[in-house]
Amino acid sequence: MSRNVLIFLDIDGTLIQENQKPNTTRLPRVIKELSRKGFLFGLNSNRSIEDVLPIYTQFGLNGPLVLENGIYFKKSPQKKNFFIIPKPARVHADLLRTVRQFAREHELAMTVVNADTVAAIPRSARTKGVVIMVNKFRLFTGSVHIYRNGVRDRKLAVQLARFLRSQFRRTHKNMEVEVTDVFGNIIMHPRGASKKKAFLRLKSYYPQYEFVMIGDDAADARTLKAVDYFFAVGNAVPEAKKVAAYTAKESYTKGVIEIVRYLEDRIS
């Protein structure tokens, strides 16, 4: 393995648990130590720049960011956006309107909120009734979280995802809609965009670096052909573990530390 390593970290299910917290506070110190040795640490996320900036700062990262399912990437938070799809459509307003239509047509007694979901999720876990939260920051993709009496409602998420697919086909919007394996939230993004394509484009900006992806779910595993190495944290889904070059015994942030120490040993 080269001494020039660019490590992309997934957020949900890798850096943080469902409560939006890491399971150890040691990772920023490890990142700082390895950054001095030339490692770069970036983020690979379905989230928007507004969502990931606090996490980027919290962990002391120093590399590029792949955002909104690969719609665009940034060489650093302050740099310009590099779009993989030219002039992608803004879908947030249509998503919010369609979620509200779903609630009306199903006569569901629920609250639909357009929110900073990172901040809203802890509150929803303490709220009675059904709460549907649409992430307000994503412009070109979407994320929807559903809680019923403080517990995620995956069954209702599957129903809403089916409704969204139908409605977006009807309006000729070429969107993929799925319910995630790890947290059970709905994510949507335009066909033709992918993290894999973003990684391939990024390689032209970092030709001397080997790309490493650390993740937990099937979407992370699908980046395998665009990176040099894929590693899975201990809580990863079986599909991700099956293709990983190495799977950590530890889960979440503890697993990330285990993997980066493993990488450090390989190039020392």
Structural features, described:
- With 268 residues, the chain is an alpha/beta fold.
- It has two domains: 5-86 and 193-267, 3-Layer(aba) Sandwich (Rossmann fold); 92-190, no CATH class.
- It is 34% helix and 23% strand.
- The protein has nine helices and 14 strands.
- It has helices at residues 27-35, 49-58, 92-105, 117-124, 154-170, 195-202, 218-221, 238-243, 252-267, and strands at 5-10, 40-44, 65-67, 72-74, 82-83, 110-115, 130-135, 142-148, 151-152, 175-179, 186-190, 210-215, 229-232, 246-247.
- The strands form two sheets. Strands 5-4-3-2-1-12-13-14 form an eight-stranded mixed beta sheet, sandwiched between helices. Strands 6, 7, 8, 9, 10 and 11 form a six-stranded mixed beta sheet that branches.
- Strand 8 (142-148) and strand 9 (151-152) form a beta hairpin.
- Helix 3 packs across helix 5.
- It is globular.
- The mean pLDDT is 91.
Which terms would index this structure?
Rossmann fold, 2 domains, 268 residues, eight-stranded mixed beta sheet, alpha/beta
Write the layout of secondary structure elements.
Elements: E1 5-10, H1 27-35, E2 40-44, H2 49-58, E3 65-67, E4 72-74, E5 82-83, H3 92-105, E6 110-115, H4 117-124, E7 130-135, E8 142-148, E9 151-152, H5 154-170, E10 175-179, E11 186-190, H6 195-202, E12 210-215, H7 218-221, E13 229-232, H8 238-243, E14 246-247, H9 252-267
Parallel strand pairs: 1-2, 1-12, 2-3, 6-7, 12-13, 13-14
Antiparallel strand pairs: 3-4, 4-5, 7-8, 8-9, 8-11, 10-11
